[in-house]
Amino acid sequence: MNAVETHNLTKIHGGRPVVDKLEMHVPRGCMYGFVGRNGAGKSTTMKMIAGLAGFSGGEVVLFGDREPAVPGRIGALIENPGLLPNLSAFGNLMAVALAMGVVGAKEQCAELLHVVGLDDVGKKKVEGFSLGMKQRLGIALALVGTPDVLLLDEPINGLDPEGARAMCQTLVRLNHVRGITIIISSHMLDQLNRMVDRFGVIANGSMVLEFTDDELQKACNDSVRVKTADSSRTLAVLEQALPEETFRVDPDGSVVVSGFRGPARIEDVARVLHDADQTILELSAVGRDVEDYFIGLMNGENHHA
Amino acid sequence: MLNLLKSDMYRLVRGKTFWVILFAFMAIIMISAVALWFVTTPTYGQMLQEGTVTASSQDAFSSLTIVAGESIVSGGLLTLVVSLLLTLFIVSDFSTGFAKNILAGRQSRTVYFAEKLVLIMIVNAAFVIAGLALLQFAVSILGISFVRPDTPGELVCWAALTWLMTCGYSCACVCIAWLFKSVSVGVAAVILVGGGIIEGIVTMALLNFIPASAQITSWFPLGSLKLLVDGGSALLQPASSGDGLVAAAHICITGLCLCILFAGISLKVVSRKDVC
Question: What pLDDT is attached to residue B266?
Fold first, then answer.
């Protein structure tokens, strides 16, 4: 069962669709990377899923339920953490826990401070917190009431490398240990790529493509580079044996075969050249830059289509 | 809703704003009581004989509700103080983004806004009761006696109607602040609406240009506050507006209309707006 699904989700603002018939499918227990340019509609989509913004059309389905009867299954940190500066970190958590009617509020708040690594500064007023501490407290606030789904909008932004890494580790731990489904948006594709197991790419308010981490790896390893003693003959042999693929000869005489769906196909190239008695000097799968791949998708190219 | 109320109470008593405003309110009441006591001293009598001061209205000594009306209701002190506290507190949910934590997860927005209206009622009741209690305590300590003390019925009726009117003003200020989700707009609303400035200007303009509009302006909330200044004993007398109703009924109708209007806007319009 999917934890979150959206069908034809639409938000019209100022007469223009900010989110346009968006289809999103987030399996239960997965860590979902939501990627898109600034203004693509990521935050608005997250707000609609969290129930913070109304939608002009379509629907949000949570755990198969169109009208969730149990509120509080979603925790969210969208845009910036909503903190009360005059209260301590513990006070902020308690205010939310009391509002949600959490049983054993004090114990849960203390535990959450520990989970996000703020137990030492729990009694300090939030107004003196650094950006990283505020982000971590924002995540703790989103975790009050033990939600099943966590929506995090740019939680790593503005953090130093060490803080970003600690944040990522915390999120991975929450996903693995507590089984929380996490939808996370970020421009830091490198960090995101290390954490998530499913991606959704949004452009101009519409979902361009959803794919798994494995599919991403395959999509980025879509070329094979081969160097032989006779590049002209190699090209002719490959074109005849693999008519569905595309070929390019680089200035150094290497032949680049594109369009393969996985590293296993490198064996096809090797077999064809061996059968044709070609001496292989070099043979390798060429990895495509993940960032380039995402930028292509964000520009509206659908590489899987 | 009870959980939301618990959370708000937790935040309210841990914030500085509540204590600063409560302390200022109590200080003003004490100053009023001391000023009243000063009028009874020989020094004041001597100043009267020397012509340094002019005699104040003896109505001020009639009853507790008249003293309270003069000191905390007249001039909009009570409405201003409570509306300021509530507006700053309630709008901080949106100015800080804290409301996102409460409303994320598809919590009912209507329940959230309804709870804030209940909070407005509770805080207003607390301030009216605290104001009257402190004033009674102060006049007792200072040895001031009233010519015609309020009966318990008059006292309760006056307190209830004062509460209704201050609730109406607070609802109006909070609703305006909610519509704009801005602390600055909220503070401006407290000064202009809670302080009765806009009403005063509109009333003056109407009476100047359309003298017959007195029937309309008497139904403005400010008119009801003026009726409260006359104290608990005047509540069962006909209202000065000449509408044939006793003052209590006039105040009750005005207060209820004010509360219903702004509570309705809050629940029907504000609750449908996006949270952030």
Answer: 84
In A, which residues are within 8 Å of B101 by CB distance? Answer: 82, 96, 141-142, 144
- The string of DSSP codes covering chain B is -HHHHHHHHHHHHHSHHHHHHHHHHHHHHHHHHHHHHHHTSHHHHHHHHHTSS-PPPGGGGT-HHHHHIIIIIGGGHHHHHHHHHHHHHHHHHHHSSHHHHHHTTT--HHHHHHHHHHHHHHHHHHHHHHHHHHHHHHHHHTT---SSPPPHHHHHHHHHHHHHHHHHHHHHHHHHHHHHT-HHHHHHHIIIIITSHHHHHHHHHHHHH-GGGHHHHTTSHHHHHHHHHT-GGGTTSBPTT-SSSBHHHHHHHHHHHHHHHHHHHHHHTGGGS---
Mean pLDDT of A110-126: 86
What does the alpha-carbon distance between residue A126 and residue A294 come to, in Å, rounded to a whole number?
Answer: 37
- 3-class secondary structure, A270: helix
Mean pLDDT of A52-75: 78
Tell me the per-residue pLDDT of A206-248, one tens digit each, with 9 for 90 and over.
888 888 887 777 777 677 888 988 888 998 998 888 877 777 7
Q: Contacts of residue B11 in chain A, CB cutoff 8 Å?
A: 84, 87, 91, 95
Q: Which domains can be identified in chain A, with CATH numbers?
A: 2-217 (3.40.50.300), 222-286 (3.30.70.100)
ipTM greater than cut 0.85: no
Q: What is the pLDDT of residue A260?
A: 45
Nearest partner of A293 among A185, A199, A161, A164, judged by Cα: A199
Record the tokens describing residue A199, joined without a space: 């991606």
Which residues of chain B lie closer than 8 angstroms to A82, CB-CB?
96-101
Distance from CA of B194 to the nearest CA of A (A): 26
Q: What is the pLDDT of residues B155-210, one digit of tens each?
A: 899 999 999 999 999 999 999 998 888 889 989 988 888 777 888 888 888 888 88
Query: Token pair 């002209």 is at which residue?
Result: A232
- Give me the residues paired with residue A227 across strands: A282
Å between B199 CA and nearest CA of chain A:
34
Q: Two tokens at B215?
A: 């029937």
Domain ranges of chain B: 2-272
Cβ contact, residue pair A82, B7, below 8 Å? no
**Burial group, residue A120, by CB count within 10 angstroms (0-12, 13-18, 19+):** exposed
Distance of CA A277 to the CA centre of its chain: 45
Is A132 in the B-facing interface, judged by CB distances under 8 Å? Answer: no
Q: How many CB pairs under 8 A join A and B?
A: 99
